[in-house]
Amino acid sequence: MLPSLNNLSTYDTTGVNERIDRFCKRSIKKSSKVEGLKLALSMIDLTTLEGKDTTGKVQQLCYKAMHPHDSLKNIPSVAAICVYPSYVAIAKKALMGSGIQVASVATAFPSGQSSLQVKLSDTKFAVDQGADEIDMVISRGEFLAGNYQYVFDEIASVKDACGKAHLKVILETGELDTLDNVRKASEIAMNAGADFIKTSTGKIQPAATLPVAYVMFDAIKDFYLKTGKMIGMKPAGGISTSKIALQYLVMLNEILGKHWMNKKYFRFGASSLANDILMQLVKAETGSYQSANYFSKD
């Protein structure tokens, strides 16, 4: 059932930014920083979503997912590979036995401008090919027109089409205009059956931002207190440095706590982030940075 959206928290941008500034100034010890970087690496969805994707590129990305940096000891693999539906079977085969999930975008990604029938067909194809997770986009035009029931029903229908696959609902927050709209969209998605709520497709700017993540964390916390159900969160797009990743993890821990501090409930939608984390881990282990040429460009 579509929840009431009349009594939701409202957000003052200045107040949100002030609180985020406090999170960003947290001091992190070197040992904790290394563990935080390893945790962040384990939460990454390595992603390739380009028209020029090829079988070879997807296979190479899968290899990197399993072997982020062979010269570094005791580092985790990433959480998932995210590809278009046509490459799900290839990724599934390449990752067999690794425990790494295969995620697929669907529902006319990234615009969402298609019929429900096409979106459901897109989703079912990806699931039939072996996708463990589906990343769907909401209909932002319908949302901004105030057709909240339409958005709710569409998400619920896609959730049904997912079967056993987890559903990550992309809000495309860069097109929602206000933090209050981000809160409304988060509420609709969670009540409609989302297993995760996700900021962005990565195709629109601004993509993931700390203020948007703050609002989504806040919505998840209130939903948990109301229902007892834990919902995951995935910021995606524009997260390219270890420093920013650690800031997200600090905020995640402060707002939602330790039970969310794992890949089951938190992901980064970023590929360039992996290389920056690996460079920082090499520096921590050897005392010097490796050239960027030592890392694959995804």
Tell me about this structure:
With 298 residues, the chain is an alpha/beta fold. The chain has a domain at 82-265: Alpha-Beta Barrel (TIM Barrel), CATH 3.20.20. 46% of the residues lie in helices and 10% in strands. The protein has helices spanning 13-24, 30-42, 55-66, 88-94, 116-128, 140-144, 148-162, 179-192, 210-227, 242-255, 272-286; strands spanning 44-47, 80-83, 101-105, 133-137, 166-170, 196-198, 232-234, 268-269. An eight-stranded parallel sheet has the order 7-6-5-4-3-2-1-8. α8 (179-192) links the parallel β5 and β6 (196-198). α1 (13-24) crosses α9 (210-227), α2 (30-42) runs antiparallel to α11 (272-286) and α8 (179-192) packs across α9 (210-227). The mean pLDDT is 94.
How many whole angstroms does the radius of gyration measure? Answer: 19 Å
Low-confidence regions: none
Overall CATH class of the domain at 82-265? Alpha Beta
Please outline the major beta sheet.
Answer: 8 strands, parallel
Strands ordered across the widest β-sheet: 7-6-5-4-3-2-1-8
Q: Provide the CATH topology of the domain at 82-265.
A: TIM Barrel
First-to-last CA distance: 41 Å
- Secondary structure class reads alpha/beta
**What percent of residues adopt helix (DSSP H or I)?**
40-55%
**Oligomeric state as shown:** single chain
- Please tally the helical runs, counting DSSP H or I stretches of 4 or more residues: 11
Quote the average pLDDT. Answer: 94
